[in-house]
Amino acid sequence: MNSTKGRRKVAPATTGDGGGDSSDKLDQLMLSSAICNGEDLGPFVRKAFASGRPEPLLQHLRHFARSKESEIEEVCKAHYQDFILAVDDLRSLLSDVESLKSALSDSNSKLQSVAGPLLATLESYVESQNVSNNIILALKSITFCIRLMELCSRANRHLSGDNFYMALRCVDSIETEFLDKTPSSTLQRMLEKKIPAIRSHIERKVSKEFGDWLVEIRVVSRNLGQLAIGQASASRQREEDLRMKQRQAEEQSRLSLRDCVYALNHEDDDGDGDGAFGGGGGSGGVADDAKDGYGNGGLRFDLTPLYRAYHINQTLGLEERFKQYYVENRRLQLTSDFQVSSMTPFLESHQTFFAQIAGFFIVEDRILRTGGGLISKLEVENLWETAVSKMCSVLEDQFSRMQTANHLLLIKDYVSLLGVTLRRYGYPVDALLDVLSKHRDKYHELLLSDCRKQIGEALAADKFEQMLMKKEYEYSMNVLSFQIQTSDIIPAFPYVAPFSSTVPDCCRIVRSFIEDSVSFMSYGGQLDFYGVVKKYLDRLLGEVLDGALLKLINTSVHGVSQAMQVAANMAVMERACDFYFRHAAQLSGIPLRMAERGRRQFPLNNARDAAEDMLSGLLKKKVDGFMTLLENVNWMADEPLQGGNEYVNEVIIYLETLVSTAQQILPAQVLRRVLQDVLSHISEVIVGALYGDSVKRFNVNAIMALDVDIRLLESFVDNLASLFSDGEANQLKTALAGSRQLINLLLSNHPENFLNPVIRERSYNALDYRRVMTISEKLRDPSDRLFGTFGTRGAKQNPKKKSLDALIKRLKDVS
Hints:
The chain is 72% helix and 1% strand. By secondary structure, the chain is an all-alpha fold. The chain has four domains: 55-141; 202-252 and 300-427, no CATH class; 444-611, CATH 1.10.357.30; 633-782 and 797-813, Tetracycline Repressor, domain 2 (Orthogonal Bundle), CATH 1.10.357. Mean pLDDT is 79; it is low at 1-19, 256-298 and 785-795. Keywords: Cytoplasm, Exocytosis, Transport. Residues 1-24 are annotated as: Disordered. It is found in: Cytoplasm, Cytosol.
């Protein structure tokens, strides 16, 4: 305090004795201003030292400091009284604080004595609360771990029972709900390690089951295809049986059988649709649907392993990868199924080959419809296109190698059944049918070749003997089955047929050809195929059978009996040809009236004509042997013979014997044609004898004898009238027209009437005027014999002779 007061008495420094100049005052003012403003004094210091005069600066600073000390002193003086009062207040407050401190100490002592037990209790409570919280947390952890362990145990049970989907559900629950919240780090590490391992294990197991299923489904597919094609075959057979019954009913109706018995047969359908085949269900609940099998306890195929593998891969998030894996494996299996063994003939392996492919696509159809998108329709169509292309290639290759019609037919039938089977599932099979249609001509050529060989063997074995049938079933098998009977009345047995064994043998061959041809054309995509069947039937009859019969006739027929039997056979075959075309029409499913409308002439015309020509030729040779007796005729007889010449009697006896035999086996039309040809030949021989050089001259008596001969022949023809119709009998008489007209002309009183065109056309149309001229010149009147003119000189000329001479003269003029 005293020091302070001493300082207050110091006077402020002055500016000097007034000797400083104005610049020093200015510097002082500027320095004071800078200090007051808090500015940097560096420039003033540098300036002072730069000028070498720091003393004025120091002086100014001291002067400023002394001026401020005086200001401070004034301020302190102004607040001194307040400070004293505050100190006094603090001193009074200090006594109050001391009293308060003693009161607080007493209160603290009391509080300590009272709160001590309470604090002990509180500490015990807090400790108990901490223990309780720890216990609750432990219980929660234990409960959490128990749930986790239960879920793990459930997952293990599902794994042990191969219930992989539920196991994956448990693993997913563990991973999403427990893994991050697991209180045990050891348990958490174990789960993090085991969960991927479990998924990998399930994936391997499912992949193994799927691989086993792929191996098993190949065998199942083959059996499935065989069964499906077998059902299609059974259905086709039922249709054929129904058509057969319908044809029998139509035939009975055609034959006007009124005592028919009609019955309705009910047959259980085995189910040819989708329900006949087993398959799988959707992704969920496939166990029941996937084990559906065939309707009547047939083969079952299980798609559960496939759908479970698909569902598990969906759960694992590997759906697309599994789809691709499935399609690739099935494509590889299909490619493997396409392999055709070169060690086994295709005829033996074709059923297995096509059944395997059919089963494959039946399974794929079920998977497409029930697999929940496992395979798409486009992928199935691509697989089918590949299969069709390969099957067409295999068929083309195998068909090109085959040289047996029956082998082609067997494979074609199976392929058509394959087409019927797979068409039910919506697969297009037109390409396969096109391949079959493409080889239609080759099949029929092979079939024609086989039939040519069979017909040749049948004809070579013919003994030219009438066929003997001892039992009714033989008659039914050899006659009724080909509708070649002439009467609906069953004959008495034993029955001798008018034909030889060649006829039913050839009928069987032709019928087999028709049935094989229809079988090949049926179910081939072409509905109206009768035209094709008829085309090749015409070729079989017109080329093969007709050619073989011609060859037989020209090389193996040497006697009249053989020729007669062949001619009889041809007549029966003509009726058989009607049956062939009706049978082809019935099997082709067209009305008989359409088949009748499209019929052409008898296809075995050449063979029939050759047989009849051969028979006629042999008979002519036989007759020529008798006609040589014409040499014994007395052409200048003194009187006419009353009983005919010797040759005509021999001829008539032979012809009567011939007719009695021929009418047993030859139809009336054939017999009439043959007799007409023979009689025409006899007539020609008689005319030829008169025209030939061997007869130099003849008289009226000889002509009258020939007239008797022709009358006998005409009487022979009249006696056959009961065998023929009136028209045929009259036609048969025209065979003798040449000789009859010539004899009538030579015996006519007015032979020159031959020159009259009207009379000639009416009475002498069968005569050639050159022959008439030559023969007329040979005719001599009895008065023309040697020395006859001496007794008749001057007598009137015979009018007939005159007319004949006029005829000869006019004919010579014409010629």
